[in-house]
Amino acid sequence: MSFRMRCMPSGSLPNRLKVGRYAGFTLRWNSTVTRDPMTGEFTALPDIEPARLQVQKTDSPRPPPPASNLVFGHTFTDHMLTISWSARTGWDTPKIVPYGPLSLYPSTSVFHYAQTIFEGMKAYRDEKGKVTLFRPDMNMKRMNSSAQRVALPTFNGDALLHLIKELIRLDKHWIPQQKGYSLYVRPTMIATEAAIGIHPPADALLFVICSPVGPYYPRGFKPVGLYGTTEYVRAAPGGTGAYKLGANYAPCVVAQKEAAKLGYEQNLWLYGPEHNLTEVGTMNLFVVFKTEDGSAELVTPPLDGMILPGVTRDSVLALAKDHASGKYKIPGLSDKLVVSERPVTMKEVKQASQDGRLVELFGTGTAAVISPVDRIGYMGEDVLIPTGPDGMGPVSKPIWQELVGRQMGSIPSEWSVLVTE
Fold this sequence. Notes:
The protein has seven helices and 23 strands. Helices cover 19% and strands 30% of the residues. Keywords: Amino-acid biosynthesis, Aminotransferase, Branched-chain amino acid biosynthesis, Pyridoxal phosphate, Transferase.
């Protein structure tokens, strides 16, 4: 696929049907689409083409609610992006339309075989009104990986990202002005073939919705208690743990409910006879140990096919490695830092807690960024984990401050991708 910029007039388009424009120009994406000269059938199907974008603005725009009333994932903006796909004709015309219901037949395959994937990302507004996305290229890469794993169609990530930016520009006034607030962006793809039978779908729908959200901990960090789940397994080697599939999440709800009944806020997924730590609920996991020479070892389980490659996980690792190597120093973080991607077991965590070598344990994810943990219920007893006076630890807090600073724009970073000035 090749891309080029062309200046195109849009005055002839209907009032409510506009082609997406950026900086005074229309972005023209040329895809190599070919047909068989004898049959006329596609031999290379069209990819997503932003130049074909149609925009239908709502006739009934709603005022965004007060920021203080927001509940995560319950409020959505006026518009959404939809792009249909067919195995016969490829990706269809992208459309930004008023947010509303989808019309699907009861036989639609997503209802029966859970052929659905999604992503979670955020748009941030700085003090001057500039809107940015945080490392969205990683979300596009992971979404394509997830699509391939369940035989959904793949797509050009740059093209979809351009369309997501257009959607955010249209609804940017929904991003609350208050500090710590953002716009949660949820790209989703579902199989929409209206037929029962498990096979690669002939039809699919990619859509993107947006939700204004507040800080995960509005009253300061509150460490959570985890229940070490040994009765259920979230993922196994060769399975789908490394992909963001809807089917991975529904089976987790029972384990979370049982953890809550026992007095814990979330569950810790353990795997295998050694009870290896894998993930915290729906978050990636980090542990900090004190080593013999007094250094802090920041440990996270490796991406072995069971662990979701989280964007926040990768960001924490990158920042910590740059700090440890001296490439980029994070204020407030000790220079004596070792970063490891290796297996870690509950036996190691428990022993470190007893020996006073356990520094902290926390989860990472798009919604909470960093979530500190103060105890793990394991085999009938609580393994206690230190936390600082403000709920965070000596490694997680400076990394969190650096990460949030980059997300919100107070710290310049190439990870911040411009949506609009």
